[in-house]
Inverse folding.
């Protein structure tokens, strides 16, 4: 007799919203947030508190969910016209636009409330963080530098996690933030190659639309060189050990590998370069950095 599995309405709704915010993409920023948190505890010799770790993770979830839901709400008309994105939840009618907006507002409120229970500086800076991650959704309408704004949004992860524990800024977590900024901006340009023709047709701004495939890949290359340099600078400044440098080598190697996968005349492996390669780079690097700190 065949097995059947009943999916409850609540499970169905949760699945829709997890898909809406591309929850799997937390694989990019979350490992660097854990680096920032561990760095603050070990490198700065701060007391470890479980509740701070939980609050930091909640802030990551709320801020990212708000940003993604708002992007889907704001871009719903463009997404409906693009064959690649027409299947997304809002243009496909799976989630109503007003519900995506309400979801955004709820997550923004939860983010601010959570920062209140962390410390003053996180609470006072919470509107700034929300502005950055929400503002990204507007940028493609007027600047090709939209990729850098996305990079800034994700770059808040390591420094934000560091502030959660310490309540003050420092150079070392900022170096990791700059590494994230240039890394994310670079691979977002690669991802945007898929929509070069669509962006031009709709008068949307992006590096591929402005410079073409070859020019965009060159800019992405340059950004990833800087990302590797920031990782090296952090390693030297923080006087890290063997595990760190092994992680840095893996990270840099995977940056090179994704550029070998994507060529101006062959974009068939863009998704592999975007999700798989960068996901592995983030996880492996973070694990080895944290291991180095703990040892």
């Amino acid at each position: 007799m065949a097995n059947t599995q009943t999916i409850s309405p609540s499970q169905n709704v949760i699945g829709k919203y997890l898909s809406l915010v591309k929850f799997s993409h937390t694989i990019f920023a979350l490992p660097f947030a854990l680096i920032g948190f561990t760095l603050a505890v070990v490198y700065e010799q701060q007391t470890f508190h479980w509740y701070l770790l939980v609050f930091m993770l909640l802030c990551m979830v709320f801020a990212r969910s708000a940003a993604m839901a708002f992007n889907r709400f704001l871009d719903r008309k463009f997404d409906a016209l693009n064959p690649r994105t027409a299947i997304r939840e809002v243009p496909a009618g799976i989630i109503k636009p007003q519900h995506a907006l309400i979801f955004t507002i709820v997550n923004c409120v939860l983010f601010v409330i959570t920062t209140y229970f962390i410390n003053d500086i996180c609470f006072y800076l919470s509107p700034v963080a929300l502005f950055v991650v929400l503002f990204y959704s507007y940028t493609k309408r007027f600047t090709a530098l939209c990729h850098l704004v996305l990079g800034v949004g994700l770059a808040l992860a390591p420094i934000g996690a560091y502030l959660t524990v310490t309540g003050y800024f420092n150079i070392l977590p900022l170096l990791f933030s700059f590494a994230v900024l240039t890394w994310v901006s670079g691979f977002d340009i690669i991802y945007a190659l898929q929509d070069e023709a669509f962006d031009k047709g709709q008068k949307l701004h992006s590096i591929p639309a402005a410079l073409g495939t070859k020019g965009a890949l060159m800019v992405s290359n340059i950004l990833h060189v800087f990302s590797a340099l920031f990782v090296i600078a952090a390693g030297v400044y923080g006087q890290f050990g063997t595990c760190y440098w092994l992680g840095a080598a893996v990270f840099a190697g995977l940056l090179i590998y994704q550029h070998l996968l994507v060529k101006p005349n062959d974009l068939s492996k863009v998704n592999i370069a975007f999700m798989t390669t960068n996901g592995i780079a983030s996880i492996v690097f973070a694990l080895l950095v944290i291991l180095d700190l703990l040892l």
